[in-house]
Amino acid sequence: MTNSLPSDVIGRRILCNGDYGTVLFVGSVPPTTGIWLGVEWDNPQRGKHNGSHEGIQYFKCRHPSGGSFIRPNKVNFGIDFLSAVREKYGLNDDQQDAESRTETSIVIGRRTVETIGFDSIKEKQKQLNNLNDISVDGCGVSLAGQEEEIKRTCPNIRRLNLSKNLLSFWKDVVDIACQLEHLEILNLSENKMKFPSTLLPATRAFCNLRVLALNRTGVTWTEVLLCATGWPALEELYLASNDISLLERPIDVLLNLKWLDLSDNQLTHENQLHLIADLPRLETLILSNNGISSIHFPDVEFGCKTNMFPSLTHLRVKGNRITEWSVINELDKLQRLQSLDCRNNPLMDTDKNVETVKQLLIAKIGQLKFLNKSQIFPEERRGAELDYRKKYGIDWLKAGGNQDPNKNNPSEEFLAAHPRFQVLCEKYGAPEDGELKREQPFSLKNQLLMLTFKCPDKPDQQPIKKKLPDSMTIQKVKGLLYRLLKIPGSELKLSYESSKMKGKEFELDNDLKSLQFYSIENEDCILVRW
């Protein structure tokens, strides 16, 4: 609490009984006497009105009940950076027991950074000088303090957590950072600051900064670009939950950016993504929970690779509104995409069988190595692509496809819906009549496979022929073999040989997957070893 008002009180962040707010008014509110602060609370339920009293509007709130009038002596305007550090780590000079303390473990977040001895004030100063990892989250930091004091006291900080403090203006951050020439990682999340509206003068405050978190700060993309002129080495930028809906093309900034988190914003229009598609080194883009329904790369046609996002390998679009497979076709245009997380989109519910949707995703994006945080193994990709080729073989024939390359001329409409189909035909051969999946009445007979079981390491064991449903899991196949061969399933190692690819084996390495999952077909041979 304070009895004096800062000179720049308008716009200052305050804390009162655990609630954060911003001062938007200072002055008298008749018929009462004395000075009042008009505060807009971060939590609108804390307020009582919209900034008006008895018909007079003193300030405006975004929420009709987000404001309050409060006496200055009731609020906390925060403390300087070094005071917060000393309080957090028990380094205050006025603590009577500090002289007798000989050893303390400093815990930053979940990590114990180092053990510090406190035999004297001199020793404390020495230890502050050596600290390179500091967290003062939620400690009420509002300003840098005396000029150059941070630089004299703890100049070696490399990683700094300043989240959820009372920093009101970007200038306050610059005043702290300009004294930390080794600063590499900075977390400013949950500081509702006022950012610059014009280009900033050159400064070396962030010349070594590699990672910056500005989640829930209210920053706009325009403000990010204005500040980014001072972040020449930045590689990771976190901008979650800032209500960002409009982007601009970065010009001569963010050239080293590899990781960009724009989750939980409002980037609903695909054209906004085009504005950041030229970031040359961007490898990871997080767009979760934005309300995205479509993605399109208009510079190339289906089946070609786009020049947009040239370095992108990891994309997260979890929790959006994607319903169309055309979006997945577009993602295959990305040159280097290896990892995709698209969980919690309506598209994932288009088939009751989750495994079917997963296989379609794998087949449609050729370079994918991880899907929804699970690795895609070579056999899984092969099975997905073979099944896709069979699943849409009838549609391919109807659209003008033909097993004779000279007659093969599928329609543009088919190729737009299945841009990788021709690639899969080149990889595995055009689907033959016996492979094509036609609509048939549901019956067990239609799903039975005639399979031959051979034991290549046991020449005396005669081959065994069995008809099995394609839905049978590998675990149940092993159970069957235990009854036939009296070999425990845990000792069995199964692989299979396709009737169309003689001499090549494919391991059946997942007991919970079905024969259909591995694209095992009629007349294939399962090899049994133990």
Written overview of the protein:
- By secondary structure, the protein is an alpha/beta fold.
- The chain folds into four domains: 13-74, Roll (SH3 type barrels), CATH 2.30.30; 132-350, Ribonuclease Inhibitor (Leucine-rich repeat, LRR (right-handed beta-alpha superhelix)); 381-435, no CATH class; 444-529, Ubiquitin-like (UB roll).
- 21% of the residues lie in helices and 19% in strands.
- The protein is built from 14 helices and 26 strands.
- It has helices at 81-88, 121-130, 149-153, 170-177, 221-228, 270-274, 325-331, 354-364, 378-391, 393-398, 412-417, 421-428, 444-447, 474-485, and strands at residues 13-16, 19-27, 36-41, 52-53, 56-57, 67-70, 79-80, 104-108, 111-116, 133-135, 141-143, 159-161, 185-187, 211-213, 236-238, 259-261, 284-286, 314-316, 339-341, 370-371, 374-375, 448-454, 464-469, 493-497, 505-507, 525-529.
- The strands form six sheets. The protein has an eleven-stranded mixed sheet with strand order 10-12-13-14-15-16-17-18-19-20-21, with helices on one face. A five-stranded mixed sheet has the order 23-22-26-24-25. A four-stranded antiparallel sheet has the order 1-2-3-6, with no helix packed on it.
- Helix 8 (354-364) crosses helix 9 (378-391).
- The longest helix is centred in the last third of the chain and has 14 residues, at 378-391.
- The radius of gyration is 32 Å and the shape is elongated.
